[in-house]
Amino acid sequence: MSYDVFADWFSANNSLLLKATWQTLYMVAFSGIVGFLVGIPLGVILHTTKRGGLLESPRLNSVLGAIINIGRSVPFIVLMVAIIPLTKLLIGTFIGTTAAIVPLTIGAIPFVARLIEGALLEVPSGLVEAAQSMGATPLQIITKVLLPEALPTIINSVTITLVTLVSYSAMAGTVGGGGLGDVAIRYGFYRYDIIIMAVTIVMLIILVQIIQSVGDALVSKVDHR
């Protein structure tokens, strides 16, 4: 394809691609924010309620862990279909960009919780014991020791989650969720338009690279180990 032909093609499709990119960013950002707001506290609870933890509660830990494991074990494409009644109850429809945020958020929460739990496990136990010996409360230890010390790994976990949500949002396009995945399916696959399929793939790759690069830069900035 010559440059002029490609320029004409892009001029005819740029509004479609820009809209789809915005929809993808909207889905990833909104579901990511809600997923972090819920998943990070759950990860902290998982870590602190385990045996020997700051707030040891094996029963709570087992129940919460089982629920999170169930959430993580359901493939995203199945999750989208399974919670259609919930999506319709919350949004009024199960089709569209806003509707796709519901399964994206529910899929992100258990994923984030386990990543945060793993991040907190990397904090040396000696730091926690030192804080306890100085009379720090569990809340103070969580906010002043655990979370700050685990911050580089937490940022890395956030990056991994956002990259995963980009791929999930593309899958949401298979059921009319909008975004770049929807464009790839409807205009690329169904219409046998290889160019638009390739362009959407490239745009998704670029988006993932930007997220990963920003995440890596933030990790390098806050990691003083």
UniProtKB/TrEMBL annotation:
Major location category of this protein: membrane
Q: Can you tell which superkingdom this protein's organism belongs to?
A: Bacteria
Which InterPro entries is this protein grouped with?
AA_ABC_Transporter_Permease (IPR051322), MetI-like (IPR000515), MetI-like_sf (IPR035906)
Q: Which Pfam families match?
A: BPD_transp_1
Query: What are the BP-aspect GO terms?
Result: D-methionine transmembrane transport
CC terms in the record's Gene Ontology section: plasma membrane
Q: What transmembrane ranges does the database entry give?
A: 25-48, 60-84, 90-113, 194-215
Which Gene3D superfamilies does the annotation name?
MetI-like (1.10.3720.10)
Membrane topology note: Multi-pass membrane protein
Name the keywords, alphabetized: Cell membrane, Membrane, Transmembrane, Transmembrane helix, Transport
Localisation per UniProt entry: Cell membrane
Q: Where is the ABC transmembrane type-1 domain?
A: 21-212
Q: Which NCBIfam families match?
A: PRK10782.1
**Which family is this sequence assigned to?**
Belongs to the binding-protein-dependent transport system permease family. CysTW subfamily.
Name of the featured protein: D-methionine ABC transporter permease protein
What is the organism of origin for this protein?
Answer: Vibrio ezurae NBRC 102218
